[in-house]
């Protein structure tokens, strides 16, 4: 239930936008019309707490919810050199976690913007499965803030989002990894290649599987589009959350089978 104060403030803001667009002599243009319609459909109220103000550019997540202790935890060093798993404590040298030590991972390294906290997973779940796509600017912003400085001008040849099976994408109406990758491509200037890696078939949802089951579930699930040649190139795989790295590793394997020299992974969240 949205707070009364939030509704009042958002109503005033909507009326101001509407009056500005309709004021005699003021220009009426598509952006203005879109903003008015959007504001009428989605009030400027945080969709997490339902009380404070938050607008479309903020993804309807207010500053207080962003800043609340435990909600957002940026991934900072030290972390596993390979999969990016954060480590609590001081390290004197390179560190590889138990998740990577006994596994063959096809990506060279993986990094994430934030830890997959309950807060982040709840917003992401609503975004992916609840069709609450107004959260996109918030989620995309977190990834771009962390990944763009590391990738820009570093000689990467292309970005590939982890593809969904066409049936699952039709159910969901979009691919969250593609939306994240598209924003990252725009921010970095790295070419986006969403059709270059494809799924061979529909796999089980990874969320409820054990580590061993995840690896088996996606083994051989991805193939590079026929005719793609990546000899000596460096590629970035983008997904929403990295848990064991099984899915992104298989995508990286498909890229390396076509000759890619280096593949890194960037995700919005990192499960811990």
β-strand number: 6
Unreliable stretches (pLDDT < 50, length at least 5) are: 1-29
CATH class (first level) name of the largest domain: Alpha Beta
Structure classification: alpha/beta
Q: What number is the mean pLDDT?
A: 84
- CATH architecture label name of the largest domain: 3-Layer(aba) Sandwich
In the residues, how many domains can be counted?
Answer: 2
Under CATH, the topology of the largest domain can be stated as Rossmann fold
Shape: globular
Strand content: 5-15%
Q: Topology as H/E string?
A: HHHHEHHEHHEHEEHE
Task: Summarize the structure in words.
The chain folds into two domains: 4-67, no CATH class; 98-270, Rossmann fold (3-Layer(aba) Sandwich), CATH 3.40.50. The protein has helices at 4-22, 30-41, 63-67, 98-101, 118-129, 136-151, 166-172, 176-188, 211-218, 246-257; strands spanning 109-115, 158-161, 197-199, 222-224, 234-242, 262-270. The model is unreliable at 1-29 (pLDDT under 50). The protein contains ten helices and six strands, in the order H-H-H-H-E-H-H-E-H-H-E-H-E-E-H-E. Helix 1 (4-22) runs antiparallel to helix 2 and helix 6 (136-151) packs across helix 8 (176-188). A four-stranded parallel sheet has the order 1-6-5-2, sandwiched between helices. A two-stranded antiparallel ribbon has the order 3-4.
